[in-house]
Amino acid sequence: MQAQPPTQMHEPVGLLWLGDPTDAVAHFARRAPHVRVTAGDVTSMVAALQSGAADLLVLDAAQNGIDVSAVLGHLQAATLDTPVLLLTRPGGEELAIQAGRFAVCDCVVKTADYLLQLLPAIGQLRARHDVVALFRTNRHSQDRLRTILEFQPAVTSVISPDGIITAMNQAGLALLGAARDQVVGRPFTSLLPDDARPDAAAFLRRICQGETADFDHVVLRGGSQPLAVRTRAVPFRNGDTVVALATLQERVAVPPETNPELEALSAAALADALSEIESLRGQRDLWAAQRQTYETHAREAAAHADAVIQQAQSDAATLVKERAEWALERQHYAHRRRDAEQTAAALQQAADVDHAAMLTLRDDLLRFMADADSQCRTIIEHHEARLPPGAVVSNQSST
Fold first, then answer.
1. Domain residue spans in the chain?
2. Among residues 102, 37, 98, 104, which one has the least CA distance to residue 74?
3. Fewer Cβ atoms within 10 Å of its own Cβ: the N or the C terminal residue of the chain?
4. Which architecture does CATH list for 13-140+291-319?
5. Using H for helix, E for strand and C for coil, what is the string for 117-180?
């Protein structure tokens, strides 16, 4: 019974193979034609990877002449962020650890069935590489967001769902007349008088539930001096939680039209912050879609590997069953042959006995005929002796 190939993935994958890819090319041609294998060497490796001709580097360290340290050194020198699939002999775990210091790496030991491990290893390696790149980009975006908040001219802060201030820029610290360690890590309500704290807590709950709202209240500047402010907050998703991104503006007694520059500055600052939030949301949605795609590819690769393994196990079980049936049939034929030989021997023995009986019967018949002839002659002689002289005996009567 021949195993059926798994369902093909449609996204093409390019492999740059350092070593002899003959077996892998034949394997992928049968089971994963979307995987394209190109043989290469250390000299042309960097140019091929920089051109985008390959998505992944396969380094066959089990073959003689492949210097893993030299190849990894070339990758590092060229600042190439390429995932590496390392093929090693049994016991070559140290090479995998060494490669993992330079790149996102996975290791496959070249056993008899290593070709069946290549496809799932490639899918998982690509997914892990893309997730690492995603997290790296995400950290850069968070650093960028912190930088933007830090140098905003308007008072800007980030408040967690439990009401703790997790970030406050320099303008906010200056407005409150406090050091960073006196603000960050403390509840937002601790900046307000006791009678305003329930309203402030309800305001923060609304923001973290997805609303955008304003809240006029008083903060205690320097811990004791009341200062009338207006807090405007918008929800902002940070991982699996929603936090409040809030700006504080001092409420002054003069009419707004007498200080248009301050209003324009605050409006511009808030517009910049909201624009940056929208940009980050777009990036977040894109990363989430990419991550889902990578996880789907990894699951498909694992499912394909499971299907291949299950089919191989089924084929092996079928062969074992057929072999047992053949052995039983062979034993049955042996019994039948032995019975036939015994029957033939019995028939031969019976034939020999019948032949001997026929010979005995023939001898008995010959003796009987001889005895009958003798008796007939005796009777004839006795009859002739009793006839008168000169009588003729008929031949018919004699007979």
1. 13-140+291-319, 151-251
2. 102
3. C
4. 3-Layer(aba) Sandwich (3.40)
5. HHHHHHHHHHHHHHHHHHHHHHHHHHHHHHHHHHCCCCEEEEECCCCEEEEECHHHHHHHCCCH
Options 3.20.20.70, 3.40.470.10, 3.90.1150.10, 3.30.450.20; CATH of 151-251? 3.30.450.20
* CA 335 – CA 329 distance, rounded (Å): 10
> Which alpha helices (DSSP H) does the chain contain, by range?
22-31, 42-50, 68-77, 93-100, 114-150, 170-176, 197-208, 260-386, 395-398
**pLDDT tens-digit readout, 183-232:** 999 999 999 999 999 999 999 999 888 887 789 999 998 878 899 998 87
Strand partners, 35: 13
Question: Whole-model pTM?
Answer: 0.35
Beta-strand relationship, 84-88 and 105-109: parallel
Q: Residue 20 carries which side chain, given as an amino acid letter? A: D
Task: For residue 190, count other CB atoms closer than 10 A to its CB.
Answer: 16
Q: Which amino acid is at 355?
A: H
Look up tokens 């350092």; give the residue.
18
Q: Which residues does 253 contact at the CB level (< 8 Å), separation at least 6?
A: none
Query: CA gyration radius for the chain?
Result: 51
